[in-house]
Amino acid sequence: xxxxxxxxxxxxxxxxxxxxxxxxxxxxxxxxxxxxxxxxxxxxxxxxxxxxxxxxxxxxxxxxxxxxxxxxxxxxxxxxxxxxxxxxxxxxxxxxxxxxxxxxxxxxxxxxxxxxxxxxxxxxxxxxxxxxxxxxxxxxxxxx
Length: 144
Fold this sequence. Notes:
Structural class: alpha/beta
Strand content: 25-35%
Largest sheet: 4 strands, mixed
Number of domains: 2
CATH topology of the largest domain: 2,3-Dihydroxybiphenyl 1,2-Dioxygenase, domain 1
Order of helices and strands: EHEEEHEHEEEH
Radius of gyration: 17 Å
C-alpha cells in the first residue's frame, strides 16, 4: 500500500475554505465530505481534510491557534517557477493572503509563501529537477 498524508486543518467557514482549495487545483472527494468536514485531494497521496472548529474539537482538546500564529508551514512542490507564482497570486485572489514572506530565489530553487483564509501557511516551491535527481554537478545560486 502506498503511504498517504492527510493534512487536517481547522477552518471557520467550510464552503469558503473548499472554494479556496478548489481554486488552487485541489478536488473534493465527496465520500469524505459532509457539513463538518471536506476532503480536498491534491494528488493520489496528498489530501487536506478541512474540519469545522466543532469537528476539530472532537479530535483534540488542544486549543486552535490564533490566525496570526503558526505551528507549521506546509510546502507544496511545483513543476516550475511560474506555477510557484501562479499559486501565490491565486491564493490572494481567492480569499487567502499572497506574499506572506518575500519570494526566495536561490537559482536552483525558488519558493513563495501564502496563507489560506484561516491563516494556514503554505509555501509553493520549485526545485531544479537536475539538482533533485543529483544529475547537476553543483548548486548554482542566483548570486553566482
